[in-house]
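Lab meeting, action items carried over

1. Structure of the two-component assembly. Owner: GW. Status: complete.
Input record:
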Amino acid sequence: RKEVEQDPGPFNVPEGATVAFNCTYSNSASQSFFWYRQDCRKEPKLLMSVYSSGNEDGRFTAQLNRASQYISLLIRDSKLSDSATYLCVVNKRWGAGSYQLTFGKGTKLSVIP
Amino acid sequence: GAGVSQSPSNKVTEKGKDVELRCDPISGHTALYWYRQSLGQGLEFLIYFQGNSAPDKSGLPSDRFSAERTGGSVSTLTIQRTQQEDSAVYLCASSREQGLGQPQHFGDGTRLSIL
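Predicted assembly:
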């Protein structure tokens, strides 16, 4: 099982739709989680951190389920500008004082007019 | 500058040549990371530096790859005797510290093409 798995998509949704992505991780020692977005031929940019209690930032809601080892991202009222690849990122302790960031391969979202 | 700065933005070179890529992290960020992303693929971790500590080189794909970070700031990634499979975008990221809750901020990347 891969360390971080995501459905590659693409998810093609109309403007205004609600879309959700899931991401599963294999290492139960994982301790912090993020969603990044990456536009075509651009660098990844932090979208939001994912907290245990769940968190919301405008139209975006992130959830963490430690028992099932998955993270989700919900986008409400999709905009054309939301079209991008969404990367699930898991940070875990690795060795004494070391941490490792593992990126999923991303889920591609296309919002259609 | 305000963000992570990488240079050059594009590099085209012949197979067998050595290349050097540069990363200037955000001021005050002690942790620095190098990643590689091939076309249509996910990010591949290469190496990280935390301050002046010995780097974690576990992600380097071969001994042709090396990196250094002088004075805990600027880093260079060197690829010797380049091969065509080295063609990719090389991304550098920095964070305030190498802590679990610290997000990473990426530079624009260096697009490396090996002919």
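2. GW to write a short summary for the group page. Key points so far: The interface with chain B takes residues 31-32, 34, 42-46, 49, 87, 91, 93, 98-106 of chain A (CB under 8 Å). The CA atoms of residues 16 and 78 of chain A lie 5 Å apart.
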